[in-house]
Design a protein that fits this description.
The protein is of the alpha+beta class. The protein is built from 5 helices and 12 strands. The strands form 2 sheets. Strands 1, 2, 3, 4, 9, 10, 11 and 12 form an 8-stranded antiparallel β-sheet that branches.
């Protein structure tokens, strides 16, 4: 009987250690993330599932740590995951456009940083041919700024410029809200996207069933393990 308890205790301790390790890794090292909207098209699509490096933007306490560990602030062009400034319980993914001290301006959909036009044709997408007006308290989508990014902050925009709720609307991103940088897509599913609201256990079970049934036919196999840039 004692031997049985010993085996049970060994399994329990092994599972406990594995659980703690996975929780630690998910909190501080790597995290999975799901793309729920089209604001980053065509770089990231609805249904893309990502691995996110949570370590890269972590704080370094000493000069030695900053030198030895692969830590750095976000750079212009980085795709970043962060907590929403408006609702910190929600994670958001956008592209870092500007850093502290940068002057950001959008003129007729064209992005300028510190007075120079940005060559963003390789990732920026404009689907709406309309040019929306730049009027007080109205849309700032196509004409914005000039805006100076404040201290310890970033300016972020979605690649799908005509369909992205980003720093043009809610302002700069405080640096402490950064969570990480996506590494690669580990799975891309082109089926029905899950809704944010809880619709009950029955609907959740049906959704899981639909996903399982469409796994082979609706998985975008060509996007699997694609690096994110």
């Amino acid at each position: 009987m004692a031997n049985g308890r010993s085996v049970f205790r060994e399994y329990f301790e092994a599972f406990l250690i594995a659980y703690i390790f996975l929780r630690f890794a998910n909190t501080f090292v790597v995290q999975t993330f799901y793309i729920p909207s089209g604001s980053m098209e065509n770089t990231l699509l609805v249904g893309d599932h990502l691995f996110v490096n949570r370590f890269i933007y972590g704080p370094a306490a000493t000069a030695l740590e900053r030198k030895l560990l692969p830590l750095r602030p976000a750079r212009r062009g980085d795709i970043v995951v962060f907590r929403s400034p408006e609702n910190p319980t929600i994670d958001v993914v956008k592209r870092c456009i500007g850093r502290t001290g940068d002057k950001i301006e959008v003129v007729d959909k064209r992005l300028y940083i510190n007075g120079k036009a940005v060559d963003d044709a390789s990732y920026a997408l404009h689907k709406d041919p309309r040019m929306l007006p730049d009027l007080p308290f109205e849309d700032t989508r196509d004409n914005f700024g000039p805006f100076l990014v404040p201290e310890a902050s970033y300016f972020c925009m979605g690649d799908n410029r005509d369909n992205s709720y980003d720093s043009r609307f809610w302002g700069p991103l405080p640096a402490h809200l950064l969570k990480g940088r996506p590494l690669f897509i580990y799975w891309s599913y082109g089926g029905d996207a899950p809704v944010d609201e809880w619709e009950g256990a029955g609907e959740k079970a049906r959704q899981v069933g639909r996903t399982a049934a469409g796994f082979l036919s609706k998985t975008r196999w060509g996007r699997t393990f694609r690096l994110i840039r």
